[in-house]
């Protein structure tokens, strides 16, 4: 017991200390965990041999992560990305495997071992890449989506690989292999003829899909009716563990199975509940996994063969990055997206650990090679955060400075610049153009720009935070800048920068929330429009109408509400202090409370009609007297 | 005659009289009642639709409470937009020619207040001169307005008969039983004077 507590204490301690420090230095949580692991293991030796078993346990974090990824992805979306999945993913796996295999054969390794090595190297680290992209908010970028497709394809391709690899077994080693079979997990399909294996596999997948679709709903409803939060959490974990177990029994990848279950449940009303229940477990397990990767590094071996191992690692990263860059190019990734794609996926992944131990068990790869290969894999993962840093600090600024600039050249500067042509910017653009104003439209998403083109709207691909792009768009002579980007930070950055260059320019800015409004106001924007405020007011008005209020009364209520809200906003802006968070700014809190009281009185006036309320207008004298009684 | 009631009241939650009147009008078969404030709470009057409505009817009734000696604002907006040149008046503007124009309004003040000694000093009919002139320009016979004076403190006993009279008036319009010649001699219509202008069916 105390041993377990001690271990838990050590690991949690490491995480709690290392991760915030790593994040503070902009290194990302993954590198934080990895460093914590290195400190614990090789450096101070607090943890040792048990990391292997903990690692197997921690790998479950990957399974959970794919479940969560699946939850975010409806079947329709999955179907829509089938081309990217098969095309980009397939090209990447085949390309990497071929290159690594060729290199290995050149080094004099037999073709079977070389092929196995190629397959092992083809997978990237889902855990690191998705976690990092998610933290950086890059999952939705073109590069992020391509990365996701590749990772998903790799996870899927592990299944045929597991089936294929044993066929490559070395005759010389085959004798040894038998003994290891005892270590293999219990299996439902072991020793069955091929077609039965196939049938059982298909049955298992069908069970996940059909069960996920029809059984989980009544089940969760029943469990939710107990109104015990922890029981629901237990059920969510049970679901994930159960599916993983089923998949392992039939020899499929548990990660893939839970991913499938996630997709099936993406439409369910319990989706958010499941998400929030599984999320913390996923985070902790993944963290644990990264710690074990760090802790498990065999420093003795590493130091003994430092140049060789480092060389192999770098060669692997360079080879993978090159293949990725070519594949990305072929599939029309550009600029930062291409770099993100190529650098981000250039490591070997956690599946490499799995495949390596599997191949050694099945006598495909000589056992003597394994420790060194494990080191190469771990090292390449360890270097990934550095690659992301390289991307952030070196590649991005360079692209931004406009050397290899992928952005379109803007040939038609116009009096109105619109940054962002999503749902928000489109409306503005349509309204301005239909009234004869020339606009120049910039957007960060190449897909968006292309789809605009099919509707005959000329948009230019490029990052509006780049001064030179704004310049090219005609910032010096423009009459107006509309900031319609859905990234509050970017909007603010552009507003500040542009205000310095053009104190006289009229800036219409899309605000995210109140605080963003204050910031944009300080930055000197002229019109600041909260993005969902007007539509919410309209929805409220519709609700009032549906509840039986006369449409004109509902309109007046909405107008009064808007006016009141604006007054509040102005008051709060006066006491808002960018240096102090509002929740610990006494003046702000007091003003917010006061404003709430006033607002309620004002809205109550809608009913008593005596003061500033909705019906101050239209009150005939008699009614006013009686209302005041 | 096909009869259209254009009803305008900006605060129906406070209305006593006009609400009853509008409900009464709705019950009269063959009469179309349009609540302008409900249909256009943001004053986005659909000109084509309103003009078609006018074309489809032969008698137009404007029902409203008197506000600052005039109509509620949406009726003014409606006039400004719908009574277009070339439609209601001017070259080729004959769409409304011959259709009847009737105001059915309620005034807060009593009849005496609109007398020469009253506090408003101006007869109600004179205050409606802009509407009457508009009707003339559109070649629409302008009927004497059907008025409830003292609407601010109208009790049930005064409100109900007025509403009942409104029903008879609308039915008479619909069935073509209004004695236009007799009506023209009157300054305004009230429940009391109604029988003199309605022919028995
Ligand atoms: C803004 C406003 C202006 C008004 N102006 C007049 C007026 O000029 N002359 C008058 O007699 N009554 C006036 N009134 C009183 C209304 O005509 C009276 O409240 C209405 O006819 C009552 O009908 P209802 O119960 O349907 O609201 C006014 C009322 C309001 C609210």
Structural overview:
The complex is a heterodimer of chains A (629) and B (201). A six-stranded parallel β-sheet of chain A has the order 3-2-1-4-5-6, with helices on both faces. Chain A folds into three domains: 2-14 and 22-63 and 71-178 and 267-397, Na+/H+ antiporter like fold (Up-down Bundle), CATH 1.20.1530.20; 412-531, 3-Layer(aba) Sandwich (Rossmann fold), CATH 3.40.50.720; 547-629, no CATH class. In chain A, helix 8 (126-136) runs antiparallel to helix 9 and helix 17 packs antiparallel against helix 19. In chain A, 70% of the residues lie in helices and 4% in strands. Chain A has 629 residues and is mostly helical. By secondary structure, chain B is of the alpha/beta class. In chain B, 36% of the residues lie in helices and 13% in strands. Chain B is built from eight helices and five strands. In chain B, strand 1, helix 1 (17-27) and strand 2 form a beta-alpha-beta unit. Chain B is globular. The model of chain B has no long low-confidence stretch (mean pLDDT 95). The complex binds flavin mononucleotide. Flavin mononucleotide binds at residues 9, 14-18, 65-69, 106-109, 151-152 of chain B.
Tell me how many strands of chain B there are.
Answer: 5
Query: Major sheet of chain A, described briefly?
Result: 6 strands, parallel
Order of helices and strands of chain B: EHEHHEHEHHEHH
Estimated helix fraction of chain A:
55-70%
């Amino acid at each position: 017991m105390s041993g377990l507590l001690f271990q838990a204490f050590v690991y949690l301690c490491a995480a709690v200390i290392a991760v915030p420090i790593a994040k503070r230095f902009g290194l990302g949580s993954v590198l934080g965990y990895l460093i914590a692991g290195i400190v614990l293991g090789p450096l101070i030796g607090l943890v040792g041999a048990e990391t292997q078993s903990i690692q197997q346990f921690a790998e479950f974090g990957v399974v959970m992560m794919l479940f969560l990824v699946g939850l975010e992805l409806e079947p329709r979306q999955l179907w829509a990305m089938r081309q990217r999945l098969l095309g980009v993913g397939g090209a990447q796996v085949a390309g990497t495997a071929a290159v690594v295999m060729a290199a290995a054969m050149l080094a004099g390794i037999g073709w079977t071992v070389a092929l196995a090595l190629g397959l092992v190297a083809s997978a990237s680290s889902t855990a690191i890449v998705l976690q990092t992209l998610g933290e950086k908010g890059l999952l939705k970028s073109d590069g992020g989506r391509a990365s996701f497709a590749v990772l998903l394809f790799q996870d899927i391709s592990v299944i045929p690989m597991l089936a294929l690899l044993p066929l490559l077994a070395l005759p010389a080693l085959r004798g040894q292999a038998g003994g290891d079979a005892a270590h293999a997990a219990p299996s439902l399909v072991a020793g069955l003829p091929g077609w039965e294996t196939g049938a059982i596999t298909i049955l298992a997948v069908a069970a996940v899909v059909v069960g996920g679709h029809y059984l989980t709903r009544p089940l969760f409803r029943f469990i939710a009716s107990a109104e015990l939060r922890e029981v629901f959490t237990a059920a969510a974990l049970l679901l994930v563990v159960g599916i993983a177990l089923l998949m392992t029994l039939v020899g499929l990848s548990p990660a893939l199975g839970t991913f499938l279950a996630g997709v099936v449940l993406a439409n369910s009303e319990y989706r958010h509940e499941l998400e929030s229940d599984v999320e913390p477990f996923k985070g902790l397990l993944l963290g644990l996994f990264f710690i074990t990767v760090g802790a498990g590094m065999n420093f003795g071996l590493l130091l003994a063969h430092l140049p060789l191992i480092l060389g192999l690692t770098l060669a692997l990263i360079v080879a993978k990055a090159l293949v990725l860059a070519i594949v990305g190019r072929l599939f029309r990734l550009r600029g930062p997206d291409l770099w993100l794609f190529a650098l981000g996926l250039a490591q070997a992944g956690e599946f490499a650990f799995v495949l390596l131990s599997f191949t050694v068990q099945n006598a495909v790869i000589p056992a003597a090679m394994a420790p060194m290969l494990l080191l190469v894999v771990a090292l390449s993962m360890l270097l990934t955060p550095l690659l992301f840093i390289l991307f952030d600090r070196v590649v991005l600024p360079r692209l931004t400075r406009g050397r290899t600039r992928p952005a379109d050249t803007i040939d038609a500067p116009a009096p109105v610049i619109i940054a962002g042509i999503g749902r928000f910017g489109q409306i503005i653009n349509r309204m301005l153009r239909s009234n004869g104003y020339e606009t120049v439209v910039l957007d960060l998403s190449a897909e968006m720009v292309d789809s605009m083109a099919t509707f005959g709207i000329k948009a230019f691909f490029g990052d509006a935070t780049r001064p030179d792009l704004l310049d090219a768009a005609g910032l010096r002579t423009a009459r107006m800048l509309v900031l319609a980007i859905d990234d509050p930070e970017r909007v603010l950055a552009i507003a500040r920068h542009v205000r310095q260059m053009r104190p006289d320019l009229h800036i219409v800015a899309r605000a995210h929330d109140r605080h963003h409004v204050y910031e944009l106001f300080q930055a000197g924007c002229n019109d600041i429009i909260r993005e969902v405020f007007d539509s919410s007011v309209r929805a409220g008005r519709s609700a009032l109408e549906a509840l039986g209020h006369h449409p004109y009364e509902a309109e007046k209520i909405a107008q009064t509400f808007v006016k009141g809200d604006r007054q509040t906003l102005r008051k709060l802006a006066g006491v808002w202090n960018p240096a102090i968070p509002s929740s610990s700014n006494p003046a702000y809190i007091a003003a917010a409370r006061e404003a709430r009281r006033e607002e309620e009185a004002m809205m109550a006036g809608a009913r008593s009609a005596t003061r500033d309320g909705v019906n101050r207008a239209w009150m005939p004298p008699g009614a006013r007297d009686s209302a005041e009684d | 005659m096909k009869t259209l009631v254009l009803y305008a009241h900006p605060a129906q939650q406070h209305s006593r009289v006009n609400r009853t009147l509008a409900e009464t009008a709705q019950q009269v078969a063959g009469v179309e009642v349009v609540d302008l404030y409900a249909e256009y709470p943001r004053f986005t009057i659909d000109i084509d639709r309103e003009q078609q409505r006018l074309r489809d009817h032969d008698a137009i009734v404007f029902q409203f409470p008197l506000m600052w000696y005039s109509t509620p604002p949406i009726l003014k907006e409606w006039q400004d937009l719908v009574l277009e040149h070339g439609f209601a008046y001017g070259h080729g503007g004959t769409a409304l020619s011959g259709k009847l124009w009737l105001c059915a309004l309620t005034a807060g003040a009593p009849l005496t207040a609109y007398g020469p000694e009253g506090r408003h000093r101006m007869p109600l009919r004179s205050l409606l001169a802009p509407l009457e002139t508009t009707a003339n320009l559109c070649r629409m016979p302008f009927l004497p307005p059907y008025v409830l004076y003292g609407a601010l403190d109208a009790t049930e006993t005064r409100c109900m008969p007025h509403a009942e009279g409104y029903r008879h008036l609308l039915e008479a319009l619909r069935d073509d039983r209004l004695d236009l010649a007799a009506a023209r001699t009157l300054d305004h219509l009230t429940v009391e004077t109604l029988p003199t202008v309605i022919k028995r069916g």
